[in-house]
């Protein structure tokens, strides 16, 4: 069977979702898609890819500008989505279990006839969607820290390898920030484990609010955290590290329990391995602790000593 590939059309240059569905090539593409939709959806367990396939088929039924899928494992938007004047929502239910809510945005209101056609299309998605949700949930459980929901050490090991490949291929900067809480042990000792967990959740929140993409945020267990910055984010890494330390120290839960954070950062050097990058960031963190805590230190290249940049 001939399978549709998103890369085989010259629509790739069309900037918006509406632009795709209004392209002269669109009806040929959509015809191909809707007839093969169930088979298409079976080819991937990635929710983003399934949404993209489904939205291309739905675009044949109404002039879509955006499509969003809200699930228990996260929210996903079709590529090129932009707000439209009309919204239509539909719950995707399988065996009395709500899998997701689908939000369509379109140029025109959705007629009852279109609603019926969309419902038929949605039925084709239910089983592939359920499978993709199960797989995504399992992946999340394997890669997320159960307390804070941040990426765990396994996720970090994978992410830093991928970031390194990207850095080498595109010659772009990469910075690793390691953070460790100050005086955290006394929270557990004096107020119990529950209070300690409350602090860890507060720290994760403070970090999420400070960073643009919380995908780059990890907890290794205990009171150790890591942040991986690439491309333009890496250029302001020192600023980010100071912001993080400040945000943690100022969070009301951390203030209440007298907890602050120290950070060490290291910029990736040409041909450096992830291990040496990690070791340098760790040494910088050690230096920040030695300097009296609640501080940020930056590692300079390889064998040179770590220099003090400034106190947080
Ligand atoms: N509440 C809680 N505590 C944890 C968890 N994982 C590890 N810990 C505790 O975290 C503490 C970390 O110890 P340290 O980093 O040496 O303590 P610290 O007081 O921050 O030391 P400094 O970094 O020198 O300021 C230990 O008491 C661990 O038992 C967790 O998931 N929840």
TrEMBL record:
Membrane-crossing segments per the record: none
Enzyme class: transferase
InterPro entries assigned: Diguanylate_Cyclase, GGDEF_dom, Nucleotide_cyclase, Rev_trsase/Diguanyl_cyclase
One Pfam entry name: GGDEF
Domain GGDEF as annotated: residue spans: 172-301
Reaction(s) catalysed by this chain's protein: 2 GTP = 3',3'-c-di-GMP + 2 diphosphate
PROSITE patterns, A to Z: GGDEF
NCBIfam families membership: GGDEF
Organism: Rheinheimera tilapiae
Protein name per Swiss-Prot or TrEMBL: diguanylate cyclase
E.C. number(s) listed in UniProt: 2.7.7.65
